[in-house]
């Protein structure tokens, strides 16, 4: 089964996309499999709405464990299953908090194991100085993603007024990368993400 990873800086909207995209693909209940730091799988069952309340937050580093959900997409005459992995936010350098360092190590392990890479960048904070603001780690993910193939940038938060300027900046910086403008909150661009995954599954 294909493994698709969602990664990027903290607070860019990964978990919002993870759950709203699952809902878009027809899922209303989910079994989320979390991996704790020792690598043990812990399964928890939620309705997608409860999961949203529990897992999405305006404060950074809300997601610390890699969390996966099995999804299905129509391809040709049938359907294809794939696993979508939500991950903890990545930061530049070596973080002072050990839990964040462990979470980042876990994310990088899954990046290595994934064959489809969705790299999320917050278009609304590109010209600011916030935790979600694009930085060196995004250039490194881009380099790695392009070398691996089946990689695209999800330019998120396009529903916000700063989004268009942020998207123009990304298109200029990452000329060789497929960039999909989306809003994880409003469901904008989900059809295009679905097509991208279906082509690479
Ligand atoms: N306006 C707007 N806000 C969004 C969008 N996507 C996410 N958010 C908000 O951004 C904040 C962070 O969202 P999360 O989905 O928890 O982000 P994350 O990348 O999973 O964050 P970590 O788990 O901490 O790394 C929340 O307040 C969301 O409501 C979007 O498309 N538009
Ligand atoms: Mg999260």
UniProtKB/TrEMBL annotation:
Residues 54-146 form the G domain. Coiled coil: none annotated. This is GTPase CgtA. It comes from the Bacteria. GO terms for molecular function: GTP binding. InterPro entries: GTP-bd, P-loop_NTPase. It holds the Pfam family MMR_HSR1. Gene3D superfamilies: P-loop containing nucleotide triphosphate hydrolases.
